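Recap from last week: sequence in, structure out.
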Amino acid sequence: MRNYSLETDATELVGPWLEPVLAEVLEFRRDLHAHPELSFQEFRTTEKIFEHLVSAGLAPRRLDGTGVIVDIGEGPIATALRGDIDALPIVEETGLPFASRNHGVTHGCGHDFHTATMLGIALVLARMHEHSPLGGRVRIVFQPAEETMPGGALSCIDQGALDGVPRIMALHCDPRIEVGKIGTRIGPITSASDTIKIELTGRGGHTSRPHLTEDLVFAIAQIAISVPAVLSRRVDVRSGVSVVWGQIHAGSAPNAIPVHGVMSGTMRCLDREAWHAAGELLDEVVQQSAAPFGVDVHLEHTRGVPPVVNSEHETALIEASARAELGDDSVVLAPQSMGGEDFAWFLQGIPGSLMRLGTHVPGGEEYDLHRGDYIVDERALSVGIRVLCAAALRTLREPTAA
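Predicted structure tokens:
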């Protein structure tokens, strides 16, 4: 691994290059926030991205359906950067003057911010390249449908997003980290995330005579308790395997044992190998938990995304860039998240790193992601642009980029 330091790896600061385009990027972000679009429906968003890139003299490429890829510079690709562009099916409750005009849809996860960050980086790099050739290429992927499983990243990869790309970096808003700071972590930073659906059928009857029935509700209760417990003993506990149920439906009367029931939830894991192992064990554990009750069980296990595992080299590169742009105290350790993030698919073939972008106002209200009232401190926009743009410039100066 190469050790990055401010003395040996100094690059030209991004801040002065950003100032002339920051107002355009901020206006673009507010426009996206007012017009959010759901996964694989980001048609207006795609057009707005495309128009701004073309106006900057770049040659973007539309992906099938939605999404955009653009290269800045000439020669071999030094790195790719990724921003997700889709919104959530949530009613906005922020009261902002540029709040969602598409009722029931909002950027409650900050993807409008991610998209605007990537546009800002593209505009800055285009200005730099026009002034003096970059000495290589930076690819920016405006990815659709992160909020679906298994995610729009796979579609981007199928369409050549990673062709010739040696590494990739990305960011995600984090309302737990103060604005002006970023969070990084080497190794797993997000979890694998699968969905589980179990349907049960059995002979129902009166609750006074459960011995004459196949007590489906009792079976559901046992499965709900047993499956997480057994998996925690069959898979390395250090992997963080977690099964949590979000839905259980069975019956309609307090004195009748039903003939049908359904339960569903998620299985999450911080280790790639354990993710595969837990998936292979899941059906066996479910069937064994249900067997004593005589019910018929059908399991639907839908693979979602693997964990995001940040590489040491690219994480160090981001940290050095942040300290150069923002100061020595600008980097904090990001907590691991059990949430899923389809950026993980990009990291199956090449190294990379996902950083956390602080959006919390010190002393201000605390938010969480996927909330209709989530407000991002817009000062974080220049932070994200400066850090990842500086990181991209560092990759252009590595020997492999020549």
